[in-house]
Amino acid sequence: MSTLSGADARDAELAAQYEAYPYPARDPRDEAKRLLIGSPSHLREIDYWVFGARRPQAVPLRALVAGCGTGDGAIMLATHMARAGRAGEVVCVDRSARALGIARARAEARGLANIRFVEGSLTALDALGLGVFDYVDCCGVLHHLPDPPAALRGLVGVLAPGGGMGLMVYAPYGRTGVYMVQEALETLAPLGEAPAERLGVARRVMAALPATAWLRQNGNFGDHLTGGDAGLYDLLLNPRDRAYTVTDFLDLLDAAGLEASCLMEPARYDPALFLPNPKLRARVGELSRRERARVAEALTGNMATHVAYVVRKGARAVPPDCCDPEAVPVMREMPGAELARQIRPDGVLPFAFGTLTVPVPVPPRMRAILPLVDGVRSVGALMAESGMDEARFLAVWRVGFAVLESLNRLLLRAVG
């Protein structure tokens, strides 16, 4: 993703990087084969985690992708909106002409008419005259900026009342080894050399990297290490790369007048999930949400990023009760029947949080309910078709929904 412009030398290096090696490397011809899915900016996630499943689908959604790079998040959101017949537009701003060209070609390959591209700096959004937005995506951008707090405040300034954001920043523990190699390469391939020359040095270093290097032990970087020149450059040669612990990230949000409505996935920030000892769980139960997140990050060690949906302080939308008979559940992406097959007969769902797989307990009877979830049937309809009496269904559903919601797999559909 591209970043804000600035006057310092590192920022000039960053601009040169993304013109030489737009990130991530994408071929518009691949749009005929697949749609890349991720977080943030999945439409169903926005509906639920930002708007609490209370914003009518008929209301147009105006979204800004701030630093769109080659367009992964923007293409996903615009495609979701087009497929769902949702009115609105996705406005993509980036200062890299080459990255914007790739993103534009991807949109053209999909025939998307609800997306447009603006070359410009995020520090001058007012001058671009884009107006305000219901949703702002800033993914993989803030950690490269000269002044992340100021940049985030600027994005808050174009956020419409009741709107929200999807953010992603790098995290330190899951990037163990990266900053050691970056430090070495700042000496071996100093800033100021041509990007192609720096990349050549990095490739030679990686070919000879000692077996003891921490980066060799870290399995979190398949996308960068197999992502061609752009992936390797972004990982090891980026001239400005700051990582945030989860508490640093929450402090950044707080200073901008924001709060997280969801850290993604919520369950991975609860250490009780992977600390089965009852005494430890009792201690975890006494912790605040912030403290639980800090402990989870420190113990798992594999969080390479933090993804969050955020809203203005005090403006978090509370979704309807999951047991409301009129509520309509929807699978985030994986069909209910497929998820049901992954739940073992004993009610254990092996769930991967990156490189960590955790056994997650789910009520076994959810295996019979999930195939019925189609985004059309209401909770009341699911109960009628489940073959369970009301008390049994609601007991299973409330627990099962809470678990799968915390894994970002089962949500509620936006109204209307």
Automatic annotation (TrEMBL):
Gene Ontology terms: biological process: methylation
UniProt keyword annotation of Transmembrane present: no
Gene3D superfamilies noted in UniProt: Vaccinia Virus protein VP39
Keyword terms, alphabetized: Methyltransferase, S-adenosyl-L-methionine, Transferase
Residue span(s) of domain Methyltransferase: 64-163
GO terms assigned for molecular function: methyltransferase activity
Domain of life: Bacteria
Any Pfam family the entry gives: Methyltransf_25
Name of the protein in question: Methyltransferase
Species whose genome carries this gene: Gluconacetobacter sacchari DSM 12717
Top-level taxonomy: Bacteria, Pseudomonadati, Pseudomonadota, Alphaproteobacteria, Acetobacterales
